[in-house]
Amino acid sequence: MRRRSFVKVCALGAGAMAAGPGLLFSSDLVRREYSRVRLVDFHGQPLRPAELSPQRHYVFNYPYLATPCFLLNLNRPVPGLNGLSTEQGDRYAWQGGVGPQRSLVAYSAICAHKMAHPTTAVSYISFRQPRNGDDPETGVISCCAENSVYDPFRGGRVISGPAPQPLAAIVLEYDAENDALYAQGTLGGEMFRRFFSEFEARLSLEYPDGDAARPLEGDVEVIPLERYSANIMQC
User: Fold this and answer.
1) How far is CA 47 from the centre of its chain?
2) pLDDT surpasses 50 at 10
3) How many CB atoms lie within 10 A of CB 100?
4) According to the 3-state scheme, what is the secondary structure of the chain?
5) pTM to 2 decimals?
6) pLDDT at 27 > cutoff 80
7) What is the CATH number of domain 11-228?
8) Which of 65, 72, 42, 164 is nearest to 111 (CA)?
9) pLDDT in tens, 147-200
């Protein structure tokens, strides 16, 4: 599958890109442009930020048919952040939240350690409401597979556990005129090439036409994680 259908569609960004006041992306290599897709609801209508319940995990696939992402409404403005870095040491800045309240963020749902990710059967990774030991104002993205914990309020940075880098962020755009959300790229350390290689056997069964790595275009549906995965593991 990786020879036939893994298509490199990213175009490396040209020049530094502003990420908010005082923030500049320091490396073109950590931002990748993919097709700009519109996020839609179950009925195929543009997803309105007001429809997203605060601190509930939603899932959409991007930038490929088989690669899941989290969409979160963190319920308060989320500023951008400088000083993040990939496992290879490439430094970058994160854009922060978007939307009317600047509270909406999105990340690849592929854990940066051993790539645990939501499937139809089970999800070992999900957003957790604040508990004892967590920052009571945030909550975390936690992976039960190897206990990596990420901070969705701070660019998906690693709080604890063996993950060597933040979750890759999904670059979101909010169209205020039409009250619509778009995904248009990724930021940080992608796991997609390794993902398609290591899960090739399973993906070939789930996608017998070989289109697991088909780049998405047009509209992409967003659904709650509990509809995406039959079991959400707690840890």
Assistant:
1) 17
2) no
3) 12
4) CCCCCCCCCCEECCCCCECCCCCECCCHHHEEEEEEEEEECCCCCECCHHHCCCCCCEEEECCECCCEEEEEECCCCCCCEEEEECCCCCEEEECCCECCCCCEEEEECCCCCCCCCCCCCCECEEEECCCCCCCCCCCEEEECCCCEEEEHHHCCEEEECCCCCCCCEEEEEEECCCCEEEEEEEECCCCHHHHHHHCHHHHHHHCCCCCCCCECCCEEECEEHHHHCCCECCC
5) 0.86
6) no
7) 2.102.10.10
8) 164
9) 999 999 999 999 999 999 999 999 999 999 999 999 999 999 999 999 999 999
Enter the tokens of residue 123: 């999800």
For 216-230, how does the pLDDT look when each residue is reduced to its tens digit (9 = 90+)? Answer: 999 999 999 999 999
- How is residue 158 written in tokens? 């690693």
